[in-house]
Task: structure prediction
Amino acid sequence: MPSASGVGGISMNDGGAAVRLDSHLHLWELGEGRYSWLQPSHGVLYDSFTAEQAQQTLFAAGVRQAILVQADDTAADNEAMLAAASAHDWIVGVVGWLPLEDRAEAASLLSRWGANPKFCGVRTLIHDDPRPDVLELAAVRETLGLLEKTGLAFDIPNAFPRHLGQVADVAREFPELPIVIDHLGKPPRGGTASELAEWERQLRVAAALPNTVAKVSGLFEGGTDFSSSALDRVWSVALSAFGPHRLMYGGDWPVSLLGAPYAETVNVAAELIDSLSPAEAQAVWAGTARRVYDL
Result:
């Protein structure tokens, strides 16, 4: 993993400002027998969200590039994302699924997808797994060892409260594996003071390992205010723990629609990020993601 101290390459637009890269974007289409977690009870999310819709939404908010992140633990989801990435230059990377408990199958699938320059990371929906120790399983550790050798990043979704405490152990065992903590580990913004303090403790322990980074994404929580002032506590903790060169912006569209329109999500992030120095802000907007995902 390249040094966490550098900003990394960042493309500039005609006005000289850093291009905003969304490191966490989902696409899905209903009616294909996938996304079993998605039900009518999910309201606005129970719909199809295409690359064309995403491009229009992101570009209108001043975001010019994005990384797709898996939303289903299937090969079909990976194939759909890679097809979209092939058809759209603004999709610069794909974080896809691998069967973590089957090293042989994971190796076979990596031989198929790993040659694609846009396949830049791996994630599975471990937060939907009823086993709290899934990251500790010997079979999973074998696959993570394989992943470490490839240079691909490993995303961990919605880590708190079950998996955030395991991140540091994984990072120690695989020091060359870039580990991306999605959504700042999902801080319990609507929880008790002790719950939020425990999230902070676990996040700081994970951040002490140099091969960990975090996404400033997915911070909406039902029943809580979604604004830069409301996010100041978790943003300050993340900035203190990781520093700007180990944080990256993610919009989490279309899941973010449960909290606010995409443009508002970007504006709230901008109020936090653009308070940094220009070089630090460029790192969060694009540099960290480009470096960690080797784009």
About this structure: Residues 20-292 form a domain with the TIM Barrel fold (CATH 3.20.20.140). Strands lie at 20-25, 63-69, 91-96, 119-122, 153-156, 179-181, 212-216, 247-249. The longest helix spans residues 193-207.
